[in-house]
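INFO  loader      accepted 1 record
INFO  loader      residues=391
INFO  predictor   begin
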Amino acid sequence: MVALPFSKDEYRQRLRKVRDQMARRGIELLVVTDVANQYYLTAYDGWSFYTPQVVLVPIEDEEPYWLGRGIDATGGRLTVWMNPDNSVGFPDHYVQQNDRHPMDWMADWIKAKGWGSRRIGIETETYYYSPRAHEHLVRGLPNAVIVEANLLVSWIRAVKSPAEIEYMRRAARLVEAATKVAQEIIAPGVRECDSVAAIYQAQIASQKEWAGDVTSLPPTILAGENATAAHMLWTDRKYEKDETVATELAGACRHYTSGLARTMHLGKPTKKLQDTTKAVLEGMDEVLAMMKPGVTGEEVELTFRTTIAKYGLKKESRCGYSIGIGYPPDWGEHTISLRSGDKSVLEPGNVIHVMLGMWFDTWGMEVSETVLIKDKGNECITNFPRDVLYK
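INFO  predictor   done
INFO  writer      dumping tokens
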């Protein structure tokens, strides 16, 4: 058995919040397709989401069900907090077939439970729920009323419990260690892939008290011309003298993720980089000074945009987002965004990755913090020098 990350009482509290939202929307059965939400509700933890899997939450006060591939149902029984019988597997002859689909079996299972004529909410905008899966599930439930339930669980996840925040603090220690390793190993003549290998080791095993998980994004190392883009991957090229290197890394503990971006320059300071750094760091200071309960996402973004505009700079993309449980390919929660027009109101327990990336024609730089909203302000749970490191 794998030790539960949280008490059963915490999982029951999460379910109560989900059912409250289901009742408000008139949803009698919730089909959870987002892997992070499945983990949040059940603690199921396995690399099985390459085949269809769902969590079913009936409106009745009973434990949820995990449905997935048969050979992975055993993993469910080893990880979930519910009765082991609530981890249910479909036969292997449904896996990757042209003439049948696992959702055919799941639809039959739902009907066998007596839920086939219910008002069913489905998360449709998730990474591992395909159009074909949706087609087969809906076709297999002809008497159901299907409604959209995207982000119902995700918005509940946006407010973290003290126990969740503790895992994010552990994740912060992991990403700090990884960033320290990155700044030590990256130098002219070193291959990008060799630096990434060292970073991976720190992300997984730098802390004696707890293990790091696979992060939902791989290490992002933006060097030289590649730093003009936001999400390039490493190669076997060697870092060169006088290029700027931006690192965007993560630590993950029990899938709870903290992000941290920093910048270094392999040579003498350039005036453009120094001026940009001054603007961005001032912007970070101004943002952290005003982030508190009651502030909206768009107000945070406006603060940063106004600050860097004094230096003749502008940033078109958002400058942060809610972060928490992370599974590939993304660690964002798809709820709160720090962008113009986002009227989401910050509240205690939100955790925001404040991501201040600036990309130009031939180079780029990044600074970020993972920030916890508290009753009367905020706290950076990541702790690492923000200045550009000149090496």
